[in-house]
Amino acid sequence: MTAKAETKPLDGGWGWIVVLAAFVILAVAIGNTYTFGVLIPPLREAFHKSYFKISLIGSIQPFLVYLTGVFAGPLLKWYGWRKVTIFGALLSTAGFCASATVNSLYYLYFTYGVLTGVGNGLMYVTSMVCVQHYFDKYRALATGMAVSGGGIGLLVFAMFIPVLKDRVGWRYTFLCIAAIVFVNGVVWGAFYRPLQNVDDEEKNKKERAPLISSQQSSYSSVKSDVIRVSIAEESGCGCWGIFSELFDLSLFMNGGFILLSMAITCFNFGYHVPYTFTTPRANKGLGIPEKKADVLIALMGISNVVARLCFGWIADHSQNIRFYMTGVCIFGVGLVSCLIFLFNSFKLLIVYSIIFGAFSGSFVALFPVVIVDLFGIEKVSQSIGQAMAVGSFAFLVAGPLCGWIIDTTKSYDAPFLVVGGACIFGSILYFCIKCFHKSKESTQVHSKRTQRKHYVSESIS
């Protein structure tokens, strides 16, 4: 392994093509991940299983979408954005094709849960990281535009899947999704062109310079190669080298990163459950016809898109603004879920869907940019990947837990109260990050002043 050369953000040009590609890929990856709730009724009818067992399928997939972030970072270094995205699309396609042929619910845990989860995860993380590298000045806006594809995906899939399941059944629905993932993932993944290295640009300039300048360039090149070799040797090889690529342990020594990871975990409790159980609550709990209930997920997608674009544009104005906006989004998701008992009619559920979609979508748009603000662009792959990996365990627990709560209490409101409380607690943890960073900055300032005074006293003496 060699050290990766420094790259320069473009803030435009091909970067906008990358944003468009990320928009489409995230629409496909997020759209098929968070519309599983629409498929719960036909799967329960086909396999005659409880909500607990059915919801576990929909929990494994987002769990692995986030957990894959740990492995995606090193894969991006070794193979590049384009290859990793296309491989993810192929893996997800295979998962959906296999899901269409199963005769046991337990096979779906692997085909739908594991294969499509890992495949969607590779596409998701690559798209998020790629946009961060292509932009600096307009990073929040570009990220908001890219991740708004997830909202469009929710809207399209939430309208598309109910029609398909009614007309051709859930098996052929999986095959149709497989075709969509394959075409869009492979085609648009090819647009993830690597950024040109700053070192390469300097080399090209020096090659056009006079002989003396060319000799200096040759010396610099040799010196750079020596440095790269020494870095590669220091990084080590074998098991420890691979482990150090997968995990940047220094991040877990950072209190701010620990708090952020815990806040994301709490948010994920409240993020996944409404997408899974809003339709069953409306249909089974309130007696709203299934076709009308399916519209609620589509409304979440619409508000998701609008909020991501608006919040992304506003957040570009200041780091402080986007930091506090992110915390408000976590709190908003928790509060509206805790008040779910007030939304007891179809019209009120429309209001709930719009509010929840706006807050949840805005958080997804803002958190990658906040991570760059807090920990730097140099560690963006590791910091996003590891934060997502920690938060992934909420997906694994939340779905089955809430399914068990519904089976036990026969109440569709109770799960929303539980996950809403988790989100509110997560917002408190998130705002503590600011206090931690302020104390850390003041400590660094005090240390520098002490060193300066010590230097001055030594100079006088």
UniProtKB/TrEMBL annotation:
Picking any one GO molecular function of the record gives: monocarboxylic acid transmembrane transporter activity
Q: Which residues form the Major facilitator superfamily (MFS) profile domain?
A: 17-438
Entry GO terms, CC: membrane
PANTHER family per the UniProt record, alphabetical:
EG:103B4.3 PROTEIN-RELATED, MONOCARBOXYLATE TRANSPORTER
Q: Which domain of life is it from?
A: Eukaryota
Species for this entry: Dimorphilus gyrociliatus
Q: Where in the cell is it found?
A: Membrane
Under which name does UniProt file this protein? Major facilitator superfamily (MFS) profile domain-containing protein
Record key words, sorted: Membrane, Transmembrane, Transmembrane helix
Residues passing through the membrane, by range: 12-31, 51-72, 108-131, 143-164, 170-191, 251-273, 293-311, 323-343, 349-375, 387-406, 412-433
* Topology in membrane: Multi-pass membrane protein
